[in-house]
């Protein structure tokens, strides 16, 4: 899988699991990414959420994307560093493209949303078709 194909896969399969680690204990939850490209994978969360505090304490994460096709299973795991973005234009773009967030912003302001960009990424690709083959690793910036 090329980097271009990797980003296409992620953008097509935006629902994923996000793993953090606090005090040597893993924490995993479902997330919905905003977009992925050569500049990183962007996602957001609320600053009142536990995941936000975990990312502040330790920005090393892993994401796991799955295509949901039992006949042609493909899984992409991406490890990297989640860096908080303070770009108001990006926040406004996210809110305009995710209308369900508009009432939250109207009531509490943009400060309640934290945007992260995953950088220094390493992706591992697995598929049922290549189940016993060596892992395919893709280094991304």
Structure notes:
The structure is a single chain. The protein is α+β, with helices and mostly antiparallel strands and 141 residues long. The chain has one domain: Electron Transport, Fmn-binding Protein, Chain A (Pnp Oxidase, Chain A, Roll). Helices cover 25% and strands 46% of the residues. Strands 1, 2, 3, 4, 5, 6, 7 and 8 form an eight-stranded antiparallel sheet that branches. It is globular. The relative contact order is 0.21. The model has no long low-confidence stretch (mean pLDDT 94).
Number of domains: 1
Beta-strand level of the residues, as a percent range?
over 45%
Helix content: 10-25%
| Distance separating the two termini | 16 Å
CATH top-level class: Mainly Beta
**H/E series, N to C?**
HEEEEHEEHHEE
Query: Major sheet, described briefly?
Result: 8 strands, antiparallel
pLDDT averaged over residues: 94
Spatial extent as radius of gyration:
16 Å
What's this entry about, in short?
The chain has four helices and eight strands, in the order αββββαββααββ. It is α+β, with helices and mostly antiparallel strands and 141 residues long.
SSE layout and pairing:
Blueprint: H1 3-12, E1 15-22, E2 25-32, E3 35-37, E4 40-46, H2 50-57, E5 60-66, E6 74-85, H3 88-97, H4 102-108, E7 113-127, E8 136-140
Antiparallel strand pairs: 1-2, 1-5, 3-4, 4-7, 5-6, 6-7, 7-8
What keyword list fits this structure?
alpha+beta, Pnp Oxidase, Chain A, eight-stranded antiparallel sheet, globular
């Amino acid at each position: 899988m090329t980097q271009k194909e990797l980003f296409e896969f992620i953008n097509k399969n935006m629902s994923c699991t996000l793993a953090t680690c606090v005090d040597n204990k893993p924490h995993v939850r479902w997330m919905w990414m905003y977009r992925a490209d050569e500049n990183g994978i962007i996602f957001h969360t609320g600053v009142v959420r536990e995941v936000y505090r975990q990312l502040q304490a330790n920005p090393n994460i892993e994401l796991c994307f799955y295509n949901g096709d039992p006949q042609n299973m493909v899984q992409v795991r991406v490890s990297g560093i989640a860096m908080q973005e303070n770009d108001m234009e990006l926040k406004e773009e996210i809110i305009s493209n995710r209308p369900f967030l508009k009432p939250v912003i109207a009531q509490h302001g943009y400060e309640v949303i934290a945007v992260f960009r995953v950088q220094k990424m390493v992706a591992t690709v697995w598929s049922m078709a290549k189940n016993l083959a060596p892992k395919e690793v893709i280094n991304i910036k």
